[in-house]
Amino acid sequence: MPSSARRAERVYEFEKYRAPSQHEVHDLVRNNPFALIVSNGGGAEGAPTVTHAPVIIERMPPRGDFVGAELLGHIARKNPQWHQLTDGDPVLLVFSGPHGYVSPTTYADDPNVPTWDYAAVHLTAHVTVLDDRGDGMHVVTRTVEELEKLEATPWDMTTSLPTFERIVGGIVSFRFEVIEQRAVFKVSQDKPKDVRDKVAAAARARSCPHGDVAALVERIGGDT
């Protein structure tokens, strides 16, 4: 990424909204694998190119955070983004967790302002393009394995592997070697507990349409 993009990424990680633990960061990435793959240029007037795609964890380093981790992803071969990528290019992977609007009606004092509670992880990585059918099969089957772990009753892909073999030429796969991790968990932790309880209750009353942000507010909130 250009230096200006990297500076913007650093500004994004607000000090008071840092991830409470690496465990929370790992769980957000694993449980929200439909990521944005952002690469430099390729769009109109040189704007970044972005694709929504499943990105899964292949290997985590011993140190605990995502720096040094290996992730896998794939996109449709018809998508021109992969033609714009050279091995070693930096890309940004954006994982979005639960989020939701917070109305001033949840606060006891007035006047006040609305806000948005959310959690997100940004991983900067060096990409390797895997344009081989064998690599494609590995990435696709690993993706299915990881996503099926999120299901109550995991699906057995064995009988579908011949179908995978037949259509895998329609995708291009990637390996991502993570070089930087940024995360933000803004979940009303700067509010007193009674207010956080109201924020969580309001989110549940809306049935948390963007994920269970209420659980994050309750789990990660401050001590006051």
Automatic annotation (TrEMBL):
Any Pfam family matching the protein: FMN_bind_2
Signal peptide annotation: none
Domain of life: Bacteria
Annotated protein name in UniProt: FMN-binding negative transcriptional regulator
Species of the source: Microbacterium salsuginis
